[in-house]
Write a structure and sequence with these properties.
Largest sheet: 5 strands, antiparallel
Strand content: 5-15%
Distance between the termini: 47 Å
Structural class: alpha+beta
Number of domains: 3
CATH class of the largest domain: Alpha Beta
Shape: elongated
CATH superfamily of the largest domain: CBS-domain
Number of helices: 16
CATH architecture of the largest domain: Roll
Length: about 400
């Protein structure tokens, strides 16, 4: 026995139009409602409203933004009422298709609104606000002007964040990426960007004096840590400008170098410190370098102010020791990447999306994925990126060839 949609003896039990036509009208009303919601983003922005008030092609009379928004609210209610009336009428007439169409359309509309897609579309389509203003202008004359109440407390904060979201949606892509990077500083820690201990370049007081001078002459860095035999015994940080002045006057010696380094104690920060907190520490203490230590006080690596800034604005250094030496482009479109290269730095430089939740280096990422030390020639896939192991040394992946993710 086949179930049928129950018919009602009401006067609405027959539709003057077909169910398919009613479904199309429901879909059309939902589309208009979506466009209206998107247009409200532009109608709420002062720069867009200036275009509405003073269009270039004609000196139209000024339009009160509050009246336009109230007219939009009236139109929104009318569209929702039309969708509801069509759905209910079709249901009473034993035609479920318009009701199903209304449910699907409103669900999609709600999902798009929750994800901010309508707001994004409206912010990036300035013509939509002008079109909506032209349509709503006659209706706005029937709406009382009144006064707009200014929100307070949490409502005011929510409104400010909403306005910031609108402005960000129309900002250039690089500015959007910078804002997203700023917001991610709370989720990233100093271990994510630090220079690992085995890669820290510094000066050892126990070296021969000629070796110290050679390191000073060859270093591309503006500051170098000074330590006594081991990085665990850090003495301080010496600025190359100060060292150059001492060299020029002929006063540089081992004792003088020690004196320069001890003028300010080295800054140590615990592992797990967020980049946002570390940036505040650098600003308050007027420092640019800090040593990351674990719970036992062992030095894990070194983090600099430049490293944090590059997380926000991208690579801006031209030092020979930067990522350009760790990532070498190949004629076939692949890249030979050093195993010690930081995953986040590779992603930032090449625009990739390698996993960043686990190990912080390319070598660690490969070893964790394989759960064993690979051999040269081993092939694997990290997410969508094909990888070939090239060199293995000292129980680490020295180099690997990585291809960009294939286009969808």
């Amino acid at each position: 026995m086949r179930a049928t949609w129950p018919r009602s003896p009401s006067r609405l039990s027959s539709l003057p139009i077909s169910a398919a036509t009613a479904a199309l009208l429901v879909a059309g009303a939902a589309l208009l409602l979506a466009l209206l919601e998107a247009a409200l983003t532009g109608l709420s922005r002062p720069d867009e409203m200036s275009l509405v008030r003073h269009p270039e092609h004609a000196p139209a009379p000024a339009v009160d933004p509050l009246r336009l928004r109230r007219a939009a609210a009236v139109l929104r209610v009318a569209l929702l009422a039309a969708i509801g009336l069509l759905s209910v009428s079709a249901g009473l007439a034993g035609q479920p298709v318009p009701a199903v169409a209304a449910t699907i359309a409103l669900s999609v509309l709600h999902l798009l609104e929750q994800q901010g897609r309508l707001r994004l579309f409206g912010a990036r389509a300035p013509w939509l606000a002008a079109t909506a203003a032209a349509v709503l202008r006659p209706l706005s004359r029937l709406v009382p002007a009144g006064h707009e109440e200014r929100p307070e407390g949490d409502a005011a904060i929510a409104g400010a964040l909403e306005a910031m979201a609108d402005q960000l949606a129309t900002a250039p892509e690089d500015r959007q990426q910078m804002v997203q990077a700023l917001l991610s500083l709370e989720r990233s820690t100093v271990e994510d960007i630090m220079v690992p201990r085995n890669e820290v370049v510094g000066l050892d007081l126990r070296w021969d004096w000629d070796e110290i001078l050679d390191q000073i002459a060859r270093t591309p860095h503006t500051r170098l840590p000074l330590y006594d035999g081991d990085l665990e015994r850090v003495i301080g940080v010496v600025h190359m400008k100060r060292v150059a002045n001492e060299l020029a006057t002929g006063r540089l010696s081992r004792e003088r170098l020690l004196e320069v380094a001890t003028q300010r104690n080295a800054l140590f920060v615990p592992e797990g410190t967020t980049l946002q907190a570390q940036l505040i520490v650098f600003r308050r203490q007027k420092r640019r370098i800090a040593f990351v230590v674990d719970e036992y006080g062992d030095v894990l690596g070194l983090v600099t102010l430049e490293d944090i800034l590059e997380e926000i604005v991208g690579e801006f250094t031209t030092q020979p020791g930067s990522l350009s030496r760790d990532v070498l482009p190949q004629p076939d479109g692949s890249y030979v990447v050093a195993g010690s290269a930081a995953v986040r730095a590779v992603n930032r430089t090449l625009g990739w999306d390698l996993p960043t939740e686990g190990p912080r280096t390319i070598s660690g990422l490969i070893v964790e994925y394989l759960e064993a030390m690979p051999r040269p020639g081993t092939s694997l896939k990290l997410g969508a990126y094909p990888v070939e192991i090239l060199q293995i040394a000292d129980n680490t992946v020295r180099t690997a060839r990585i291809w960009p993710a294939p286009a969808d």
